[in-house]
């Protein structure tokens, strides 16, 4: 089943003329993002936040974005966390399998290490103990 989240009302027309086995669910208003991601088996989008968050949460993430890609998207592809669909024949790369409920750490065991790596790169290793002891982080 497809859950379609159009950004603009006119995008609803993309679904017209397609014969569906199960009629798609079309979101007509914003919904909480994490709840939405927890209820799907894969994400196919045109890049951006939805791709990145799905990839970090361990949800199979596919981008059909066809313009200049950001470094984050390329890094997620290199890590095997996202698949970039660059040509029509790449659509065969999209695989949807039923997935069970997983926590972000179960579905992406390297998440903590990746986040620490980013944090260390931003604030420096020497500032990390002070930052982690700060009351603002509790």
What this model shows, in words?
The chain contains 6 helices and 5 strands, in the order E-E-H-E-H-E-H-E-H-H-H. It has 138 residues and is an alpha/beta fold. The strands form 2 sheets. The chain has a 3-stranded parallel β-sheet with strand order 3-4-5. The termini are far apart. 13% of the residues are buried.
- How do the helices and strands follow one another from N- to C-terminus? EEHEHEHEHHH
The number of helical segments is 6
Number of domains: 2
Secondary-structure class: alpha/beta
**What is the straight-line distance between the termini?**
40 Å
Largest beta-sheet details: 3 strands, parallel
pLDDT < 50 stretches: none
Strands in their spatial order, largest beta sheet: 3-4-5
Residues in helices, as a percent range: 25-40%
**What kind of assembly state do the chains in view correspond to?**
single chain
Rounded to an integer, what's the Rg over CA atoms?
A: 18 Å
Average pLDDT reading? 82
Number of strands: 5
User: What percent strand?
Assistant: 5-15%
Shape: elongated
